[in-house]
Amino acid sequence: QVQLQESGPGLVKPSQTLSLTCTVSGGSITTNYYYWSWIRQPPGKGLEWMGAIRYSGSTFYSPSLKSRTSISRDTSKNQFTLQLSSVTPEDTAVYYCARGSAYDYWGQGTQVTVSS
Questions:
Q1: Residue 2 has what DSSP assignment?
Q2: How do 105-106 and 93-100 pair as beta strands?
Q3: Cβ proximity of 8 and 110 under 8 Å
Q4: Which of 57, 79, 105, 111 is such that its CA lies 20 to 30 A from the CA of 29?
Q5: pLDDT for 101
Q6: pLDDT of residue 113
Q7: What average pLDDT score do residues 97-109 get?
Q8: Using CA atoms, how far apart are residues 98 and 4, in angstroms rounded to an integer?
Q9: Which of 53, 59, 51 is nearest to 84 (CA)?
Q10: Does the bond joining 33 to the residue before it have cis omega, within 30 degrees of 0?
């Protein structure tokens, strides 16, 4: 059973960089041919896919967030990390990590609030 768990600060100040880590257990992030995504849901809105890192380590991003988003990984810890720069209050959301392409496994989500 694959399990994902998000971790990181729940409060970030405007203009700073949001950093979240997803720890995966029960499966390796280097297993062919999965990719590992970050998805968020702002209050009162739908899910927004942000980007992903493939089993190979290559990344791809939502065009609307590409300029501010970076996803990396630490294979020794079986973790992948999201960094979102220059945050504003509009980046307030519940952030999820999930396994693609089936999106069959998700973390429980972590609330991040952008506020001074």
A1: -
A2: antiparallel
A3: yes
A4: 111
A5: 78
A6: 98
A7: 93
A8: 7
A9: 51
A10: yes
